[in-house]
Known about the structure:
It comes from Paracoccus marinaquae. Residues 77-205 form the DDE domain. This is IS6 family transposase. Keywords: DNA recombination, DNA-binding, Transposition. The chain is α/β, with parallel strands linked by helices. The chain has two domains: 2-71 and 208-231, no CATH class; 78-203, Nucleotidyltransferase, domain 5 (2-Layer Sandwich), CATH 3.30.420.10. It contains nine helices and five strands. The protein has a five-stranded mixed β-sheet, with helices on both faces.
Amino acid sequence: MISQISAARLKGHRFPRAIISYAVWAYHRFALSLRDVEDLLAERGIKVSYETIRAWVRKFGPQIARRIRSKRARPSDKWHLDEVVISIGGVKHWLWRAVDSNGDVLDILVQSRRNTRAAKRFIAGLVARWGRPRVIITDKLRSYGAALRKLGLEVDHRAHKGLNNRIEGSHRPTRKREKIQGRFKSARQAQRFLAVHDETANLFRPRRHKMTAAAYRQKRANAFARWNEVAATMAA
């Protein structure tokens, strides 16, 4: 992957964009700590501190995620919405997440409340980005229905916990990364990290069990090509 991107250095950075892109990809693609990524690069003869990698992830991760998201195909018209509690600095927060019927994450939003106002804010952002869906599936939290009424969205709202299994699995990688990082440090940091992490997962974690080996390899090759194309346009 490193050899597939221009070796040209970014202005103000000692390392070429290929190495920076690889570090950002490895950190978000796998359940690795910053020190783990430092060791991966060291094995390849690249001496860089984990603090530098942290700066790369923070600076270039959102850039890459935004550009990948801007080229995504329109999601399916059936959305699954859910919220899960996360602890930040000992304070309870709520991670709101939406996926489509294919399991692709549409958006996430970290908020301190789990009420109608929070649900309205989350749904409004989804609709502004992706348009109106045909069906929205949620758990039995009443705030969803109230938010949809306030927004005037005429969609088929199905509130049933048993119908929302599609989104439950999308929370597991978040829990794993939360543990590796020793919990998120702030709502802003959690939002920034998860937005990039989920976009990377959309690109590199297709539903492999439903694909032939050849189809999966082609999907993976397309994902690498897309990542490299976007990484080649990273701006200092």
